[in-house]
Amino acid sequence: MANRTKARGPQTEKNGAKRRRSSPEPRLAPLGEEIQHFGSLRLLPVALSADARLESCQILNAILADTMIIYALYKKHHWLVAGPTFYQLHLLFDKHAEEQLELVDVLAERVQSLGGIAVGDPRHAAELTTIDRPPDGAEDVPAMIHRLLDAHETVLEKVRRGIDKTEKNGDWGSNDVLMSDVLRRHELQVWFVAEHVVDIPLVEA
Ligand SMILES: [Fe+2]
Of 46, 74, 126, 130, which has the highest C-beta tally within 10 A? Predict the structure, then answer.
């Protein structure tokens, strides 16, 4: 009888070490205890100074936040676009959104590989971004395109500054991500979007 009411403590192994008793219950960790703070670096042996890695993480996170926002902006416009060009813009905006989503992953994983903490929550991204917030309702199509082009240019300015900085710091991995993946993708998307507000007749009269 005494054995049934006795609290179960850790088992003792033959060598004297305590072993945690197995349990079928989920073990829920306390929430909110950070093991690494945003903006801090952990040591990863990539032969790059902490100062260079820290500066790259700041640059990449600013662009990452903007990229999460521009992804959402493309999705919003994919849903809300209207009028005679609906179908082609509906498809184009979705394609660009998918490509921006790929960049989100590339940028975030670059931050992590430098030992930093990538922006991960859209509410955090909203605090960091410098892209103008659109109205919650629908704008007309030329305004949507204007807004997208502005957003691209906001990102491109940061990307070009980032390319300069990462070159000076010798962070060639980040430099390559910014040039090969981010810069060229944005430039291409700007071209495809801007062509929709060029006033050219379909047939020469
Ligand atoms: Fe869709």
Answer: 74
